[in-house]
Specification:
The protein has six helices and 30 strands. α1 (about 1-15) runs antiparallel to α2 (about 20-45). It has helices spanning about 1-15, 20-45, 55-60, 155-160, 165-180, 305-310; strands at about 65-70, 75, 80, 85-95, 105, 120-125, 130-135, 145-150, 195-200, 200-215, 220-225, 235-240, 240-250, 260, 285-290, 295-300, 315-320, 330-335, 345, 355, 360-370, 375-380, 385-390, 390-400, 400-405, 410-415, 420-425, 435, 440, 445-449.
């Protein structure tokens, strides 16, 4: 606006010999520029007339830049506030391990940001609630939502980004989390489901329902569960068993069940619209087949899977093989990420369960990734021997301290409890396991006694 007005006044100076008519035209242009500027000022206030004698600086919207961090399935801070009429720009940085963006619901958004990238999101003048989200499919449903609201008392402190912890605060938070481990929470998953035997058929009753699930102490989230637990109950069978899985849907949406990794008849594959109808709320559907292949397998929803599975509709389906390795015992480690956060067996640190072994024992760990992201599982100080993948023995077992488990994969490892002590055991995508406030999410320990 200032440039338009200035140009109108400068023209007579540059053309000092112009006629009086040119001077009149210049004056008209000057008046027009003032009128345009006034109209723009009124428009920026949402209509109405400015008070007489008011200065432009007093009525123009104040500008504010807010800082927002994108992580893997969170937006931090998730609640922002500014004074009414603030012209807002959001400085966005992706600190996660996968691409994200930040979008105004129904409005502008940043480009897709790879890990470490930054962009500014111009929101504009804010006079009411603005909903923010990541627009990449499944990410908002998994928790990447935030809100920008107006507050008459919002000042610089209220509108700024999340508090940066001091070194002392970080130390205290970290040690408090370690001292709390293993923390008690309500609910336990992976409980073996005992079948009923009907005419030689093993019958497993499974009910899908909404549930409040305590992921970590005091962290209670909305989940979906089989038989009231996350992960769902463990189904165990042998090759040649005739099984019947009866699914009762008590959710408020349709669902289905897929037997991931198991060789089943096409009609029992569990994909709505492809092999079966939807299992609507209140309905029951029965799956029936003969178990054909051994190994570490899974069962989970195949309807609205990007939400239902990360929310908890998942479980282990383990079929004993003819030549199983001799071990002291086995441990299930079902990995997940989404609305429940980063979890091992449905819990986040410090509520995850440790693996306890006596020195010299050999433990089998069955990794199963039911999440949306890859998880490299790292055990400190003790070697893991990978011997099976997706239920099948690998021709040449190999040793590793970090084992990559992609979504949908199952990896079986043997761990020799060699050296005494507490050994950290965690996902090595560090944004899944540690923050400035300490360890969280996909962290546990192996205790060798």
């Amino acid at each position: 606006m200032a440039d338009s007005s200035s140009g109108a006044h400068d023209s007579p100076t540059r053309e000092s010999g112009m006629s009086a008519m040119a001077g009149v035209i210049g004056a008209i242009l000057a008046v027009t520029a003032v009128l345009i500027a006034t109209a723009a000022l009124v428009s920026s206030k949402g209509g109405g007339t400015a008070d007489e004698g008011s200065k432009p600086a007093a009525v123009a919207a104040s500008a504010k830049t807010l800082e927002v961090e994108l992580g893997d399935l969170f937006i931090r801070p998730d609640s922002l506030s500014v004074a009414p009429g603030t012209d807002v720009t959001i400085s966005v940085t992706n600190h996660g391990g996968i691409p994200h963006d930040l979008s105004v619901k129904g409005g502008p958004k940043t480009p897709t940001l790879n890990p470490g990238e930054h962009a500014n999101l111009k929101v504009g003048v804010v006079n009411g609630r603005v909903d923010l989200l990541c627009s990449i499919p499944g990410h908002a449903e998994a928790g990447m939502k935030a809100a920008l609201a107006v507050s008459p008392t919002a000042g610089p402190a209220a509108a700024s980004s999340t508090h940066k912890m001091t070194a002392e605060e970080m130390d205290k938070s970290y040690m408090d989390g370690v001292k709390a481990f293993p923390a008690k929470t309500k609910g336990q998953g992976n409980v073996d489901l005992q079948p009923k035997i009907e005419n030689g058929v093993k019958v497993y009753d499974i009910t899908a329902a909404n549930i409040d699930w305590e992921v970590a102490p005091g962290d209670i989230r909305k989940g979906m569960a089989y038989n009231g637990m996350i992960p769902g109950p463990v189904i165990r069978a042998n090759v040649g068993d005739k099984v019947k899985i009866v699914l009762h849907n008590k959710l408020d949406e349709s669902t289905a069940m897929h037997f991931h990794g198991l060789v089943v008849p096409n009609s029992q594959d569990g994909v709505p619209g492809v092999t079966q109808p939807l299992v609507k709320p209140g309905e029951t559907f029965t799956y029936e087949f003969t178990v054909k292949n051994s190994g570490s397998h899974m069962y989970h929803s195949h309807m609205n899977g990007a939400l239902q599975i990360p929310s908890g509709l998942l479980g282990a389906f383990i079929v004993a093989g003819a030549d199983e390795p001799k071990v002291a015992r086995e441990e299930l480690m079902i990995l997940n990420d989404g609305p429940l956060g980063y979890t091992i067996n449905g819990k986040g640190f410090p509520a995850t369960a440790p693996i306890v072994a006596k020195q010299g024992e050999r433990i089998r760990v069955r990794y199963m990734n039911e999440g949306l992201q890859i998880h490299p599982m790292h055990l400190h100080g003790i070697v893991q021997t990978v011997f099976a993948k997706d239920g099948y023995p690998i021709p040449q077992p190999y040793k590793a301290d970090t084992v990559l488990v992609a979504p949908g994969e199952r990896v079986d490892v043997l761990i020799e409890a060699t050296d005494l002590g507490l050994w950290a055991f965690h996902c090595h995508i560090l944004t899944h396991a540690e923050s400035e406030a300490g360890m969280f999410g996909m962290v546990t320990v192996m205790i060798v006694q």
